[in-house]
Amino acid sequence: MKELSLHILDLVENAIRAEAKRIEIFIIENSQRNLLEISIKDDGVGMDEKTKERVCDPFFSTKGKRVGMGIPLMVQLAEQCGGHLEIVSEEGKGTLVKAFFQRSHVDLPPLGNIPETLFVLLASHPEINFVFYHEVDGRSFGFESHKILEELGLKGFAEDGLFLVSLKDWIAYQESLLREGMHSENHKHRGSEADQGRGSEEIPSP
Amino acid sequence: MGTCGIAAGARQVLAAILDEVVKRNLTNVLVTQAGCIGLCDREPLVSVEKGTERILYGDLTPDKARQIVASHIVNGQIIGDWVVHTGH
């Protein structure tokens, strides 16, 4: 896949099929440590030990198909880029998939269109609470979809399609500021005064 | 969306359909996702279902998806050249 955001979408689709009600998508970039970390955490049905052992096998699927490519592709990419993949899962509790990459690796694809990825997820699955968090060298941006709906008094984003499109544009704007190293009132900074007290508890932990 | 669909461009197709539905203010249209149905080489696939009629379009691009919204969903005109399968 040409973008990391497509791998993220694929793993989130796994979480959706696992009947998750809350899915956390975390992207942490650290140029000092030359590290990119992507994690998808869900509260779905989880996996038993037997399934967890086989999930990296491309010829194993939990959907009755002959192949299951999502996780094997991510494993391959992470290892190709000087990293690795970790999976923690407990039956009945959920799953955490964490991929680590060397941020400067020449084979690392671009992060890609994160706003569009979030847009299709929010539009298609209003019943799921998506928590998104992106940190670049200590500066971060994030949101929780159900908190936004609650504050707007909406049951789902489909109730107001124009708002959903505006939300996508807002995410794109925040992402571009994050990447360009510019500051926004919506960005938080680790270690700054904003992190103390009210600011720090609003930053979700992976 | 299955892995095959995502790799072939299904996200962009879905985004285009959602965008078109919002732009046209279509309130009687439900947009949902499906997983892999085994026609991986024809992805991205979109199924348009009206009553008992089910039309499956394949090899789509975002631009073709927008045309399907305009032609099939709004005007009821099926775009035959892009149909992979019809059913009831």
Supply the CATH architecture of the largest domain in chain A: 2-Layer Sandwich
Rg of chain B (CA only): 12 Å
Strand content of chain B: 15-25%
Whole-number mean pLDDT of chain A: 84
As an assembly, this protein is: heterodimer
List the strand order in the largest sheet of chain A: 3-4-2-1-5-6-7
Point out poorly predicted stretches of chain B: none
The low-pLDDT segments of chain A are: 191-206
> What integer is the average pLDDT of chain B?
92
Give the termini separation of chain B.
22 Å
Structural class of chain A: alpha+beta
Largest interface, counted by CB within 8 Å of the partner chain's CB: A-B, 23 and 21 residues
- Going by CATH, the homologous superfamily of the largest domain in chain A would be Histidine kinase-like ATPase, C-terminal domain
- By CATH reckoning, the class of chain B would read Alpha Beta
Side-by-side strand order of the widest sheet of chain B: 1-2-3
Report on the structure:
The complex is a heterodimer of chains A (206) and B (88). The longest helix of chain A is centred in the C-terminal third of the chain and has 19 residues, at 161-179. Chain A is built from seven helices and seven strands. In chain A, helix 1 (4-17) packs antiparallel against helix 3 (70-80), helix 1 (4-17) packs parallel to helix 4 and helix 4 (114-124) runs antiparallel to helix 6 (161-179). Chain A starts with a helix and ends with a helix. Chain A folds into two domains: 1-111, Histidine kinase-like ATPase, C-terminal domain (Heat Shock Protein 90, 2-Layer Sandwich); 113-130 and 141-206, no CATH class. Chain A has 206 residues and is α+β, with helices and mostly antiparallel strands. In chain A, a hairpin with a 3-residue loop joins strand 3 (84-90) and strand 4. Chain A has a seven-stranded mixed sheet with strand order 3-4-2-1-5-6-7. Chain B has 88 residues and is α+β, with helices and mostly antiparallel strands. Chain B has one domain (3-87): Glutaredoxin, CATH 3.40.30.10. Chain B has helices at 3-8, 10-23, 62-74, and strands spanning 46-50, 53-57, 83-87. Chain B has a three-stranded antiparallel sheet, covered by helices on one side. In chain B, a hairpin with a 2-residue loop joins strand 1 (46-50) and strand 2 (53-57). In chain B, helix 2 crosses helix 3 (62-74). The radius of gyration of chain B is 12 Å and the shape is globular. Chains A and B meet through helix 1, helix 4 and helix 6 of A and helix 1 and helix 2 of B.
